[in-house]
């Protein structure tokens, strides 16, 4: 408690410093930050909603190379760090807190992501050569569509520049506490002008990250001698190659076109988690799999391979009455994993699988997503009335194939020579999703001080999902290659198939009133709406039961409905001390309807908890949220800068339902977060410069809704860096998590395995860069 008060007091004191403290500071103003969050270029201080931006220099100085690093700098942003095996997703204002689970790959997040003009459902790409990052808080439904409930994160990349040649090489060599060798993150950039109106830009990146979590055989399996020992120290490694090539053509003074291609190949092993005790379907412990807080237990290899390709085309130009933007993109994400599921099956079918002494199990996941997107947008260039109109279309195809293998088990049950498949469980899921939307926003400059903005987005979507589940282990079949035979010819066969097709149309609305008291103070009120589409869970019918109540619950869990929210927000933005300080803040109230959450079990009519084979996404009633955010940036001297932020967020259930009681806190959301950063740059007599950076970030404790670990403890992270600058080179020594804080970012009990996902330990490194 004292630590929380100490950190929050430091931030609050910085925010509330009386202005005379800064009056005597040396001359020097903050640089104006220009963003395009409103689809037109504006200063952050002139946009009447809550947006934060980090420039390329800010990102480099703070060492922000991963999405999860944003949580240490931006107010109201939290993250679950699942390591390379899982997508690391951001939650803004506590809306959406996805878990680290492969079954969550077909679900839509509550935060939308953009790389340039391309919408992304997650941030699996390693983004390099970034001009700036923009974080838009609150629903952005009218301009950014479905999924932008908590907010939107935008990566604005550097574009090919026909005016000058440029090249850069950089490397980051770092040692993670507990790893057995040094990790590296190396990149290059090459910008080549061709003539006066054409340019190419190429970016490459190679990451070789060492692990710090050991992987060992289940202790009880090793003690019994049933299975051979496996051991791999520092197993959670990652190796990633990324490349980007872009070509830009300045057609004339008013039009330009850009074609870009991004490819990424990622290979990783293990999980960024340590194992807790396993349980069976009734919640009873099997054997403790806990070894220590740096060890994950299992038996089979756990690896993942991800290949990503993104092709995009952008055309921008000026018409007589408006500016035009056309965007088209094609995105492919192929993700293959292998994982140990021995404990999962032992826990699911108590007394069945364990009869086979040599029992062990593993699965293969093949998940493929292809998305095509087209958007056409017009925005006015007038003065009295500004408007933006556009149309948006996206088409997505999704496939998930899962095979579960139990070596030797089929022969054990059916006898040697029996014609049975080598696996005991098959799942196939295919989905097709499309959306057509039209949107418009208009701003009336009613007076020199008062602006009124209205926005609307209408969309029509179709979502179709087909699922097929089959348990070959129960069948002594000769024709197991024909998957349709068991379901069609044998009514008692253990197989499931289902289809869902939904058509949905709706509108988002937005109202914004802003008033400028002076050139330096702006206040605003915003009402905005957000929406996230529904979908279907995989394998919700995968556990056979004779109970009608249980079957009904499985059926209800199979499909989940869209959720939406209404946001009411009041904010102020101020520029003080002749441009040497900015102080921005907002308070908000949110109504969240048909809230989507992730659960691992459901209750039957008698209140008995029935575990689901794979985590499921369900609707859990309504909720209400209140919160506040404040951000301060100030020049304390000519070269000394302070950045501070704090946020408060509380989400409670609105009414009783199967998952929460009225007024109960919604799990997965920290109430308090705060950060404080200082950096300075100084000139040396020999023409060189040196600089330093220090930052502290605090996250409150988090209720998890998990019986194994009901609360994630609060933590404080301390980062620092010391840099030397030449005319075209930089060398920096840095440390992240200098106090080597042990902190958890998530807990999962999927597959009857209690896993605690942990943040990265203390990391010390050196960054080197050279510009040609």
TrEMBL record:
* Residues making up the signal peptide according to the UniProt record: 1-25
In its UniProt record, which GO terms are filed under biological process? iron ion transport
Q: Which GO terms describe its cellular component?
A: cell outer membrane
Entry keywords, A to Z:
Cell outer membrane, Ion transport, Iron, Iron transport, Membrane, Receptor, Signal, TonB box, Transmembrane, Transmembrane beta strand, Transport
Topological relation to the membrane, as annotated: Multi-pass membrane protein
Instruction: Determine the domain of life of the protein's source.
Output: Bacteria
* Source organism: Pseudohalioglobus sediminis
Matches recorded under InterPro entries: Beta-barrel_TonB, Beta-barrel_TonB_sf, Plug_dom, TonB-dep_rcpt-like
Q: Does the keyword Transmembrane apply?
A: yes
Identify the Pfam families for this entry: Plug, TonB_dep_Rec_b-barrel
Q: What is the official name of this protein in its record?
A: TonB-dependent receptor
Where the record annotates domain TonB-dependent receptor plug, the positions are: 44-152
Location in the cell? Cell outer membrane
Q: Predominant location of this chain? A: membrane
Query: Which PANTHER family does the UniProt entry name for this protein?
Result: FERRICHROME IRON RECEPTOR-RELATED, TONB-DEPENDENT OUTER MEMBRANE RECEPTOR
């Amino acid at each position: 408690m004292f630590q929380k008060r100490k950190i929050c007091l430091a931030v609050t004191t910085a925010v509330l410093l009386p202005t005379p403290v800064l009056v005597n500071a040396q001359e020097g103003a903050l640089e104006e930050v220009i963003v395009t969050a409103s689809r037109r270029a504006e200063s952050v201080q002139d946009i009447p909603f809550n947006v934060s931006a980090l420039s390329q220099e800010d990102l480099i100085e703070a060492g922000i190379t991963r999405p999860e690093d944003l949580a240490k700098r931006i107010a109201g942003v939290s993250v679950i760090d699942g390591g390379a095996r899982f997508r690391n997703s951001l939650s803004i204002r506590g809306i959406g807190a996805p878990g680290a689970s492969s079954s969550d790959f077909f679900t839509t997040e509550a935060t939308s992501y953009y790389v340039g003009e391309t919408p992304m459902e997650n941030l699996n790409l390693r983004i390099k050569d970034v001009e700036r990052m923009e974080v838009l808080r609150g629903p952005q439904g009218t301009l950014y569509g479905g999924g932008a409930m908590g907010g939107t994160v935008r990566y604005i990349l550097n574009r090919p520049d026909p005016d000058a040649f440029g090249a850069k090489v950089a490397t980051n060599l770092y040692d993670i506490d507990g790893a057995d060798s040094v990790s590296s993150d190396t990149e290059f950039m090459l910008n080549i002008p061709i003539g006066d109106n054409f340019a190419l830009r190429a970016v490459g990146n190679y990451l070789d990250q060492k692990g710090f979590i050991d992987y060992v055989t289940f202790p009880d399996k090793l003690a019994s001698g049933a299975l051979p020992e496996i051991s791999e120290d520092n197993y959670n490694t990652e190796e990633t190659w990324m490349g980007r090539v872009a070509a830009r053509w300045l057609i004339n003074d008013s039009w330009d076109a850009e074609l870009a291609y991004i490819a990424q190949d990622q290979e990783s092993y293990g999980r960024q988690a340590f194992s807790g005790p396993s349980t069976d379907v009734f919640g009873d412990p099997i054997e403790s799999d806990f070894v220590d807080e740096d060890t994950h237990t299992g038996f089979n290899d756990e690896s993942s391979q991800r290949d990503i390709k993104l092709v995009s085309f952008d055309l921008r130009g000026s018409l007589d009455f408006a500016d035009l933007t056309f965007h088209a993109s094609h995105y492919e994400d192929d993700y293959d994993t292998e994982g140990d599921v021995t404990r999962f099956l032992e826990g699911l079918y108590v007394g069945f699988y364990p009869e086979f002494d040599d029992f062990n199990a593993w699965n293969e996941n093949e998940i493929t997503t292809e998305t095509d997107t087209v958007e056409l947008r017009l925005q006015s260039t007038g003065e009295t009335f500004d408007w933006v109109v556009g149309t948006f279309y996206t088409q997505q195809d999704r496939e998930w194939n899962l095979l579960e293998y139990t070596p030797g088990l089929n022969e054990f049950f059916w006898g040697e020579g029996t014609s049975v498949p080598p696996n005991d469980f098959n799942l196939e899921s295919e989905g097709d999703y499309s959306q057509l939307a039209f949107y418009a926003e208009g701003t009336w400059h009613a007076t020199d001080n008062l602006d009124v903005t209205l926005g609307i987005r209408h969309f029509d979507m179709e979502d179709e999902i087909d699922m097929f589940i089959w348990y070959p282990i129960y069948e002594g079949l000769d024709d197991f290659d024909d998957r349709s035979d068991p379901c069609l010819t044998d009514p008692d066969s253990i197989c499931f198939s289902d289809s869902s097709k939904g058509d949905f149309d709706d509108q988002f609305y937005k109202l914004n009133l802003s008033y400028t008291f002076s050139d330096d103070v702006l206040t605003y009120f915003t009402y905005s709406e957000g929406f996230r589409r529904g979908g279907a869970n995989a394998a919700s019918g995968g556990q056979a039961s004779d109970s009608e109540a249980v079957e009904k619950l499985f059926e209800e869990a199979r499909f989940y409905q869209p959720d939406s929210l209404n946001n009411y927000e009041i904010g102020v933005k101020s520029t003080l001390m002749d441009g040497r300080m900015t102080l921005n803040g907002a308070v908000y109230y949110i109504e969240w309807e048909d809230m989507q959450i992730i659960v691992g079990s459901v209750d039957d009519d008698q209140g008995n908890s029935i575990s689901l084979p794979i985590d499921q996404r369900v609707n859990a009633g309504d909720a209400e949220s209140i919160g506040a955010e404040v951000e301060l940036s100030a020049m304390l001297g000519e070269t000394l800068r302070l950045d501070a932020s704090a946020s408060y967020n509380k989400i409670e259930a609105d009414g009783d339902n199967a998952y929460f009681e009225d007024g109960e806190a919604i799990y997965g959301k920290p109430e308090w977060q705060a950060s404080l950063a200082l950096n300075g740059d100084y000139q040396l007599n020999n023409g060189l410069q040196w600089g330093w950076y220090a930052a502290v970030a605090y996250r409150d404790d988090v209720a998890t809704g998990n019986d194994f670990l009901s609360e994630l403890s609060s933590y404080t992270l301390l980062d620092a860096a010391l840099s030397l600058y030449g005319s075209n080179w930089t060398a920096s020594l840095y440390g992240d998590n200098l106090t080597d804080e042990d902190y958890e970012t998530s807990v999962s009990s999927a597959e009857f395995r209690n896993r605690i996902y942990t943040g990265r330990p203390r990391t010390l490194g050196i960054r080197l860069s050279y510009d040609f």
